[in-house]
Design a protein that fits this description.
By secondary structure, this protein is mainly alpha-helical. The protein contains 5 helices and no strands. 57% of the residues lie in helices and 0% in strands. The chain is globular, with a radius of gyration of 15 Å. It starts with a helix and ends in an 18-residue tail after the last helix.
Length: 81
C-alpha cells in the first residue's frame, strides 16, 4: 500500500515549501492538504535525512540548488555570433 505523499505527489512540494521556512499550517493551506499530513511528511523527511530539527532541514534545502519553482529560474543569455 502506498503512503499518502506517494499517492498524491506532495512530498516534493512539502520539501520545497518547508525549505522556504513556511510553517505546517502555511504549507497545508498552499497545498490544500490537512496539517497532520504535512506534519507526518516532514517527520518522514527528517527521519530519512537523519535530521533532528526542522532547522536542519531548512538549512539543507537552502544549500542545494533546485531547478524547479519560481525562486530558481534559469537565465538564458544569447551570445553574439
Amino acid at each position: 500500500m502506498r503512503i499518502f505523499w506517494e499517492q498524491t505527489g506532495v512530498l516534493l512540494p512539502i520539501y520545497r515549501l518547508a525549505g522556504q521556512g513556511l510553517s505546517d499550517d502555511e504549507i497545508a493551506g498552499r497545498l490544500n492538504v490537512a496539517q497532520s499530513k504535512v506534519q507526518s511528511c516532514i517527520a518522514w523527511l527528517l527521519h530519512f535525512l537523519k535530521f533532528t530539527t526542522r532547522n536542519e532541514l531548512v538549512q539543507y534545502t537552502s544549500s542545494i540548488p533546485m531547478a524547479w519553482g519560481p525562486a530558481r529560474q534559469l537565465k538564458i543569455v544569447a551570445k553574439p555570433i
